[in-house]
Design brief:
It comes from Pseudomonas benzenivorans. By secondary structure, this protein is α+β, with helices and mostly antiparallel strands. It is 39% helix and 18% strand. The radius of gyration is 22 Å and the shape is elongated.
Length: 164
């Protein structure tokens, strides 16, 4: 996909190599991430996944901050091993020292939420309406039971669905 993103990943690695004076293995990069996350680093697989929609909508900040953020996770893992915290001291050191960027844990990109189908369940309480996700509804179909915390009754599907 975007050549600029691949170039930024490579630039981040070269910066880290110059800073730490050692080579780092390059990751596999994919653009198969959807939803609210801008990027994800898979440490043991040495893989980076990025959200193409958030990249398109926030290109400059994404290239500067998000790519460095995710690369820093892989660099920290290669330097310090698996026992470190995701956004701990080691990762922050890389963000500040190597990339000279603020160690922000989360992005503030506007995320368009898709309408989600909800399955309506009820109990015996007057206001006892519970919108279930498709995943939870499927678990009920396989025999799982959910109970109301107030009246302790088993929640039952009303047959009603709605988009939220």
């Amino acid at each position: 996909m975007p050549e600029r993103l691949h170039a930024r990943v490579e630039a981040c690695y070269r910066q880290a190599e110059a800073f730490f004076k050692r080579p780092f293995s390059r990751p596999q990069v994919s653009f198969e991430l959807r939803g609210q996350k801008a990027g994800v680093a898979h440490l043991t697989e040495n893989k980076l996944r990025f959200n193409p929609q958030l990249y398109r909508e926030n290109r400059d900040d994404f290239l500067r901050q998000t790519v460095a953020h995710e690369v820093a996770h892989l660099i920290a893992h290669q330097l310090f091993g698996a026992g470190i915290q995701a956004h701990g001291e080691e990762w922050q050191l890389i963000m500040r020292g190597v990339y000279e960027l603020p160690p922000q844990r989360c992005h503030n990109y506007e995320v368009q939420r898709r309408p989600v189908n909800r399955f309506i369940y009820r109990c015996t309480c007057p206001q006892g309406e519970f919108p279930f996700s498709a995943q939870r509804h499927n678990l009920v179909a396989k025999g799982r039971r959910y109970y109301c915390r107030r009246c302790k009754a088993t929640l039952s599907f009303t047959g009603e669905q709605r988009l939220e």
